[in-house]
C-alpha cells in the first residue's frame, strides 16, 4: 500500500499548494496584519515638517489620534487628502508621517491642498516606517490616548472606510471629537 501512496504524493502536494495560493489570493490587502496592534507606538525622535524641536512618541499621549503615513509622490494620498481634511475639520486629531519624501515638496503640498495634520513627522529615511511595518503609502494607524496602536488600515481612508471601520473603533478607544457624533461620516449622514 505504501508504494501506491507514493504515486499520489505529487498530486497531494499540488493540491496543498493550490489551496495555499487560493487562500493567499482571497486575503484583503486592506487588512494586512500588523505585529504592532495592541503595542505601544514605536519610539522615535524625528524632525517636525513645520520645523522646531524634534517630535517623539510623547506626541500620542493624552488624545486618540489617527496617524497617517503619506507622501507627495503617492497618488492615493492625493485621493484621500480631502477626506482627511474633512475629518480634521470635524475635530479628529490626525498626525502625519511624511514618508520618504522631500520636505519642501511636502510643505508646498500642504500649502496648496490644506493641512489636516496637527503635527507632521519627517521620516525621510523611512526608519519609522520600517518600525511600523509600512508597506507603502497611504497607511493609517489608530492610536489610543496611551499611545498604543489599536488598528492599522492599508490604503485610502474615505467615507466608506471611516464609516464601516475607523469611526466605530475611534469611538471605542475614546475618540471624543465631533466626528464621533456624526454617526459616521463628516458632513452628517448616519
TrEMBL record:
GO terms for cellular component: outer membrane-bounded periplasmic space; plasma membrane. Keywords: Cytochrome c-type biogenesis, Disulfide bond, Redox-active center. It holds the Pfam family Redoxin. GO terms for molecular function: disulfide oxidoreductase activity. Residues 35-171 form the Thioredoxin domain. The keyword Disulfide bond applies. InterPro entries: Periplasmic_diS_OxRdtase_DsbE, Redoxin, Thioredoxin-like_sf, Thioredoxin_domain, Thioredoxin_ResA/DsbE_sf. It is a single-pass membrane protein. GO terms for biological process: cytochrome complex assembly. It is found in: Cell inner membrane. Transmembrane segments: none annotated. PANTHER family: THIOL:DISULFIDE INTERCHANGE PROTEIN DSBE. Belongs to the thioredoxin family. DsbE subfamily. This is DsbE family thiol:disulfide interchange protein.
Amino acid at each position: 500500500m505504501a508504494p501506491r501512496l507514493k504515486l499520489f504524493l505529487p498530486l497531494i502536494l499540488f493540491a496543498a499548494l493550490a489551496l495555499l495560493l487560493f487562500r493567499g489570493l482571497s486575503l484583503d490587502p486592506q487588512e494586512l496584519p500588523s505585529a504592532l496592534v495592541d503595542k505601544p507606538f514605536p519610539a522615535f525622535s524625528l524632525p517636525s515638517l513645520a520645523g522646531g524641536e524634534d517630535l517623539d512618541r510623547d506626541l500620542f499621549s493624552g488624545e486618540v489620534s489617527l496617524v497617517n503615513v503619506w507622501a507627495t509622490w503617492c497618488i492615493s494620498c492625493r485621493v484621500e487628502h480631502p477626506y482627511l481634511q474633512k475629518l480634521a475639520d470635524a475635530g479628529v486629531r490626525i498626525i502625519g508621517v511624511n514618508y520618504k519624501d522631500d520636505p519642501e515638496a511636502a510643505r508646498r503640498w500642504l500649502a496648496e491642498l490644506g493641512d489636516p495634520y496637527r503635527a507632521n513627522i519627517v521620516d525621510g529615511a523611512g526608519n519609522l516606517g520600517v518600525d511600523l511595518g509600512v508597506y507603502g503609502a497611504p497607511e493609517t494607524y489608530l492610536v489610543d490616548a496611551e499611545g498604543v496602536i489599536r488598528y492599522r488600515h492599508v490604503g485610502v481612508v474615505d467615507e466608506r472606510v471611516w464609516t464601516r471601520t475607523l469611526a466605530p473603533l475611534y469611538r471605542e478607544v475614546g475618540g471624543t471629537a465631533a466626528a464621533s457624533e456624526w454617526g459616521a461620516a463628516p458632513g452628517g449622514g448616519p
